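Customer escalation, tier 2.

The customer says the design service returned an amino acid string that "doesn't look like it belongs to this structure." They asked us to rerun it and document both sides in this ticket. The original structure tokens are below, unchanged.
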């Protein structure tokens, strides 16, 4: 009877603990994040945003169920994210998850809201079949709404969700002017960059005229790849803009390239002289780097065309980034005939070289042939860590503190007829503009995710070690456990054979 009573109380206590844990889990969300880059930990910017909400946010997630495990992981991760948002916001973020394929009405609702219909492969009866699916969400505040049409991966979820909430909760976004009128890149060429920048900003073209009204309504100004000269009156307006505490982003070409003659040529707009008065020197030469793409060179040999792969050292791959919000999370940017940047100003201004070349790089004069097919030697790459992008903060042009970002290549964010732009090129410009205009810290979420660690970059010995370590470790653990079990059983057997064993 006593044992039955104890069992009853034990079961009752267990049920009570389970119920209590469920109640606490509904009110408080907690998960342990052991990843190196804290990819499952919400940023301070997101937490601040959620705690400062004045109106409730409703999130409706449309997820098709019973898909491939990779898509199922996306759904589970998004559900966990919604739970955490609900907990941190103290109920100001409410959510529901719907299966659009459950009925026709829910599917039409998802489509009308802007959630994208996807075609995915599912395994059924040992065969792969195409199936339509939905992996998106609609975020609403009052009558306004934002949509995430498709969630393709777990990386970037927090950025997409937090920026959508910010766009709804903050009515007045800062104005960013894209300077025009001096041969700068058109808005069409910057379309991909504009799409990224419009998350936190309002983007519009700006022309410098006798009136300064257009400049005064901008929080920051972007100047990308100017080709024509700046009159002194326009440079004076830029100085006044900077002195007033407004930020400026400059992507400057100092060297052009004539494809027909393969000669480099200097580009002088007056902007480089204007920058030098603040101690920012953009070199009148271009960088070569062994870390670069391979291009195909066609050579006519008699009746045949010989195709030869060669390295194009004039387009450096930049993977050397310093710790700064503008370069946060960047993996690789690709530049074209980039020029080095140096700083000669005083220490009252904080100067940070945010991106640099590899350990084997060099420079060439702007008045030189950029020969593709020639013999290169170690003497062509005597330099290292040449700065290609820099950030400045402080009293640059007057008594008011301001910010500036300078990149020694004007073409890096351009798309248009050039096709798709390297994603981190876009992230660099978008991060820079957000840093100039926004203090919330959400820019760090744009590139938040797992860091790339390609095995090709490891030494041969280390690759082999990792390969055999991963293969042999489970076997060794099984063998050790087997030996432990065998010895334990032998000890038990010996003990049972002892005299007096009961």
């Amino acid at each position: 009877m006593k044992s039955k009573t104890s069992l009853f109380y034990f079961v009752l206590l267990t049920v009570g603990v389970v119920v209590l844990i469920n109640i606490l889990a509904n009110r408080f969300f907690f998960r342990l994040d052991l990843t190196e880059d804290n990819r499952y930990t919400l940023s301070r910017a997101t937490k601040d945003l959620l705690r400062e909400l004045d109106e409730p946010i409703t999130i409706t997630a449309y997820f098709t169920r019973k898909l491939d495990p990779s898509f199922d992981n996306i759904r589970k991760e998004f559900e966990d994210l919604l739970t955490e948002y609900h907990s941190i916001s103290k109920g100001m973020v409410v959510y529901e998850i719907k299966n659009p394929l459950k009925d026709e009405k829910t599917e039409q609702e998802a489509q009308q809201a802007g959630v994208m219909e996807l075609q995915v492969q599912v395994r059924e009866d040992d065969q792969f079949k195409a199936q339509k699916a939905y992996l998106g969400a609609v975020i609403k505040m009052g009558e306004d709404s934002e949509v995430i049409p498709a969630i393709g991966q777990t990386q970037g979820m927090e950025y997409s969700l937090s920026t959508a909430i910010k766009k709804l909760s903050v009515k007045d976004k800062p104005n960013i002017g894209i300077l025009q009128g001096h041969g700068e890149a058109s808005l069409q060429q910057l379309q991909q960059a504009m799409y990224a920048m419009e998350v936190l900003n309002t983007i519009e073209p700006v022309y410098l005229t006798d009136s300064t009204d257009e400049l005064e309504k901008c929080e920051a100004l972007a100047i990308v790849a100017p080709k024509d000269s700046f009159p002194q009156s326009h440079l004076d307006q830029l100085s006044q803009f900077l002195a007033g505490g407004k930020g400026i982003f400059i992507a400057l070409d100092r060297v052009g390239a004539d494809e027909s003659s393969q000669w480099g040529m200097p580009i002088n707009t007056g902007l480089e002289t204007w920058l030098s008065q603040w101690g920012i020197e953009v070199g009148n030469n271009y960088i070569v780097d062994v870390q670069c793409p391979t291009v195909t060179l066609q050579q006519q040999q008699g009746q045949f065309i010989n195709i030869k792969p060669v390295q194009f050292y004039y387009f450096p791959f930049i993977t050397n980034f310093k710790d700064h919000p503008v370069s946060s999370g960047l993996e690789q940017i690709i530049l074209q005939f980039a020029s080095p940047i140096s700083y000669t100003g005083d220490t009252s201004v904080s100067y940070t070289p945010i991106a640099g070349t590899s350990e084997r790089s060099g420079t060439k004069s702007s008045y030189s042939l950029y020969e593709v097919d020639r013999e290169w030697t170690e003497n062509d790459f005597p330099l290292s860590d040449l700065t290609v992008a820099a950030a400045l903060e402080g009293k640059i042009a007057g008594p008011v503190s301001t910010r500036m970002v300078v990149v020694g290549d004007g073409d890096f964010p351009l798309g248009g007829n050039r096709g798709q732009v390297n994603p981190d090129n876009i992230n660099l410009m978008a991060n820079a503009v957000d840093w100039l205009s926004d203090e919330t810290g959400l820019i760090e979420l744009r590139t938040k995710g797992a860091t790339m660690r390609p095995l090709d970059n490891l030494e041969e010995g280390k690759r082999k070690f990792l390969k055999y370590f991963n293969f042999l470790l489970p076997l060794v653990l099984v063998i050790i456990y087997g030996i432990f079990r065998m010895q334990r059983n032998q000890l038990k057997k010996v003990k049972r054979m002892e005299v007096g064993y009961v």
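Tier 2 assessment: The sequence is consistent with the input. The longest strand covers residues 127-141. The mean pLDDT is 82. Sent an explanation to the customer and offered a walkthrough call.
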